[in-house]
Structure prediction request, 934 residues.
Amino acid sequence: MPNNEKYVNLLRLLFGMIAAYLLALGVANFFRFATSTTDENWFRSSPSNLYFTKSFAVEKRFSKDAAALDSVLVGDLLVAVNDHKFQKGDSVNSVLGEMLADSSFYLRVLRPSLDKQLTFIAHRAMFPDSFLVTIPPSVYIYEVIAGGASEMAGITPGDVVFRINEQFFKDAAEADKILQQAESGATITYNLIRNNRVLTIPLTVANFGIGVSVLIIFLTGVLYLGVGAYIVLSRPDLRAAQLVGLAMIAFGFFFMVFTTQRDVVFDLFAKTRNFTLLASLMFGLAFWLHSKCHFPQARPELLGRPWLCRLPYFVAGAVFTAFVLNLAKTQFWIIFIEASALVILGGQQLFIYLKFRGSRTQEYLKLRRPIFWTGWLAGAGVLAIALFLNLNNVHRQVGYVGIPLLFIPLAYLYTIGRYQLLGINVRIRRNIQYLIVSSVWIAVLIVLFMRVFVMLPEINITIPNIHFTGKSIVILDEPPSPQLRDFIEKLLLMSFSIILVVITYKIGKLGQVFIDRRFFRERQAYNRAAGALTEVMTTQLNLTELCRGIVRKLARLMQLKRVGILIYRDEKECRHHDAHGMDDTGWEETFTKYNNQLIDAIQKFRSESRFSTEYLPNDLKEAFLKLGIRHIIPIRFKEKLVGTLLIGENLSEVPLTIDDLTFLATIAKQSAVSIENAFLHESLAGQERLKHELELARRIQMASLPQRTPEIPGLDIAGSSVPALEVGGDYFDYLNGRPNEITIIIGDVSGKGTSAALYMSKIQGILRSLNEFNLSPRELFIRANQLLSKDLDRSSFVTAIGAAIDSGKRHLILARAGHLPLFYYHAKTGRVESVVPKGLGLGLDKNETFATELEEQLIHYQPNDVFLFVTDGVTEAKTNNGLEFGEEKLTRILEANFASSANEIRDRVLAEVKRFAGNSLQHDDQTVVVVKAI
Prediction:
């Protein structure tokens, strides 16, 4: 065995022995506590045997009014005079005899009924020696359990007991020994002093038993110890696991013991238990504080300062040593030592928080978040329980704080399991988690219900002075008779009980619904699920979307961890597939590798509508079980295998029921029709694809046209293009690169449709590229023609018109390459002029003829002048009778609407063209650009 493995096993043995020792000691103490006899009261050793037989006036030592008087009462025990503390057997005369008659002194007494020591200022003259008597060694009762044996026997708080069962004793330990010698059910006698009277009271003792609160905190401790042992034994060689595990083990022992100890008996077992209890508390706290440097993530900034990690151990060792050596001999020193330890450790944690909070990484904060919030919520729960239960009798009810505290170790397990910390694989199946959480919720409800139910009879109900006559209710001046009062009280208690049951049921149901939802245990509404899946299968004709829809809907509606679907063509080829909750790579590799084997296996089970993965061949079964697939659901259409549903377990981790599998088989039958329809749709999709692509091309083409009109001072510009088919050959563009200047281009490719659109896109790219050289319209067309003539078909050409406008100089330079004229409205004359410079179409000539024929014209314009650019789709628009729109109508529209904005003129032109053509088809692309000088 390697040395490292030996070391790990030795550590595991050591930590296992520590956990076993603490568990055995805690269980033994619990059994001893449960089986010990009790008189159901609590007593302490009397501090002295000097008993006051009479009351007399004294002054309070601590009072804002120095003259305020109080009294020493009958039954008080003398503790000290000035600095002299009386021991049992001391004489008070030796101290008081030396005082002058008019002197004053400090007087400290114990008042048993309050379980408090009080300090007064007394006057010697008012304190006769006869007020004190010496009694035997005794104990005083400071609490009596309600309804217990002592209360039934008549014992009350403040009673001073000096003999039990005819036996004297010297302190509470011996008194308790005498008590424990009696068997359960036996009657013993108490000799006690009450108000200076000696009484003998018989009392029947009982077993101490275990209260609900004690059981809760004990089980909480067992949980802590178990979780701690699991963590430290899983990784005994890892420092973080050591610290977290030992802290849990130590705290677990503390919770198991601190409410189940009886401090009056100090035999060897009790001493061993008490020292172990102190060590577990102090060193458990040290382990926990040290673990914060390592868990959930190592913090180098703290580990680099060893004193921060060692200080808690030093404090724990100092406190433990002080108690072992009995250095804390008085209550004051006990409190002082404990408070000093808490201050030191609290100061250290505050220093760490303030100094190093900025160095905490985001990953560290994320990892500690469940534990952090659980701790705060548990603390709030402890405070709420303390306030709700009024924990005055802390030794009997403090155990209820175990309810919120038990969530802390669960938070550690959750964090370790979720983030795979400490190399520990914590995996509790969700159905087990559900049972645990549901059981805890029910237990909490029962405890709270019983607590409130028991409190109901204690409620003081004020009964009004009413009287029932049978037909009416009469209010009287006298209180109701005892019989009527009892009847009303019982009626009210019954009503309150019914209300309490209803409220508890409602709260329990709401909580259970939340738990069911959290653990995916909601009952499946198969009608709703079938409707949702039917909607997917009837609305999706695309196989990819159909597969995705079925998988996603099934996973969500049935709350499945994993779902897969395979679609086959001709029962062989897997055409489509989809999956939810599975690793994409592993899923792809598995169904690709085992596709043929899976189909063969399914075909062998033709009489089955479903079968388990366990029925598959071994290699195939292992592959699908590794993916988390548990059930195979064939999808058949007219006995032909068209697909397969692959189903994993549900999120609740409860096996699928027969109803679940029947529902899945029904869904498979319904989906078969949808899959077949999808195949038919796929065969028709080719015809639609071209239409779709043309529509896409149309959107691209329209997007390539100017989407925003440039803002040029002095000009109002508007343009639009309406293709005759999905795509067209018309083109317009705004080219500008300098302030106050813009070049407007309108082009028209011969022909229509896709080819024209492609040429148009090419021309657009060429012209935009050439515009970077700041060319005039004529130079722009000449260079564009040189490039286009190389690529255009001989049967294709492009007409274009370009106008470079300078709004600052108010002139327009125009060039026309075989296009329609520019329609120019003169605001001064109110007439429209057709401007037609010479020029050939682009692509018609490859030599110098194009450049020679192309001329440029300069136009100076004035405000309110309008320039209208159109393509022949506007002027050649036809009615069903073959009549053309013509340039004359275009001119009249411009003359009639010159005062309108550019947008309005453009829209008016297009509207008139449409109105003219009526219901005839648009035969050519229509493009209009309007420029108005302002």
